[in-house]
Here is the input.
Amino acid sequence: MILIFANILSVFSISIIGYAANKMKWLPIESTKYLSMLLINIASPCLVLYSMGQQELTEDTLQSVVQTAGFMLLALITATVLSIFIVRIMKVPALDRGVYRALLVLTNCGFMGYPLSLAVFGEKGLFLMIIANAIFMLYTFSVGVVILVSGKDEKLTIKATLKSMMSIPVVATIVGLLIFAFGIQLPHLLENFLDTVGGITIPLSMIIIGIQLAESKAAEVLKNRHIFETLILKLVVLPMLLFFLFIWLPIDPLVFCIIIFAMAMPSAAIIPVLAEIHGANAKLAAQTVFITTMCSLVTIPIYGIILYQLL
Here is the structure.
């Protein structure tokens, strides 16, 4: 138990670099835009491709991948349905309903899920989290975008949806799944390149989070009652509901732990970016991502220890 907590703490401690660099004016908040683009469009896709290329397609591996993909999709759909009713009960402004739904459903299983699943569940846990994130990316850039703009007067066109789905992370995810499915052996030089570049994903993601935490003011954010409600729902209520709903299903224990751990992550860092692109309330999205990320420093170690003990 102490080892698991220490592993999680060591990952979170990387964010101190980003926090300190921001306070010392080395990395201002504007730098997160460019660091995030580097992370999303280069480092993370390289990690996905490398990890997919390292896995041998066996009956057990295939079963774990299929279960992870299927149950991650089920978890996202379940959270989406629940969010529709939850947001109605919260009585948020009509124009912000889509943003609150997205904040409840879309989870940071990439930026934070990768390093933390590796710390708690090891290499196999990281691989399954990458599979879970693959489904998440496909869901986010299709259904997730529809959820985000659902409170606005302007409707999302099919053309805009297709354009959103043709992003670098989605394409890299599909290519990675094909590499795994067909057992494609990557050239040694390419493998080394993907390993080296993909290796910066974990420290870079935590540095970005550290910068964001340094620039945000928790007291100001929590003045919005609906953000506080979203915080409790996202980090406590929804993961617990999914835990008790999924515990009865015929699912591999490690897959179960990865799905619950993924859905227990804070609101996805990509939401403010998508909100900016599609004309939704980007400030609200950024504030909620910040507060859920900050408070997850407490909740994630708890989930990690519980799930590891269950496994």
